[in-house]
Specification:
mainly alpha; about 10% strand
Length: about 110
């Protein structure tokens, strides 16, 4: 086979392999060249290292989304606990005011 054949593992620098022709219409616009994988909506080809990093980053995104969800849940719980504590403090403050008034009234009646 000649050196320019795709089966030999090498493409000339100026040629690109059209993946739509090889793999079907889902791959229309995608091509493979020495520079990397060319996406139809991207200016330059993706190198091998960029493709490897993309899969790693997608896993990182999923992990970070779970952590954000967990942090939101914890924040909502903390906010609910704070609201409950403020409500209890208001109730105790109200009770203290009532008991103080009652004490003043009893002091005047008994004096």
């Amino acid at each position: 086979m000649p050196a320019s054949s795709p089966r030999s593992g090498r493409l000339p620098a100026h040629e690109a392999l059209d993946l739509g022709e090889l793999l079907g219409s889902e791959w229309d616009g995608f091509s493979l060249s020495r520079d990397g994988l060319q996406h139809p909506y991207w200016r330059r080809p993706f190198s091998c290292g960029e493709l490897k990093a993309m899969f790693y980053r997608s896993q990182q995104v999923a992990i970070l989304e779970r952590e954000v969800s967990r942090a939101r849940t914890e924040q909502e719980r903390a906010s609910a606990a704070q609201d409950a504590a403020e409500a209890r403090a208001d109730w105790y403050r109200h009770q203290l005011t009532l008991e103080s008034r009652l004490g003043l009234m009893l002091a005047r009646v008994s004096a």
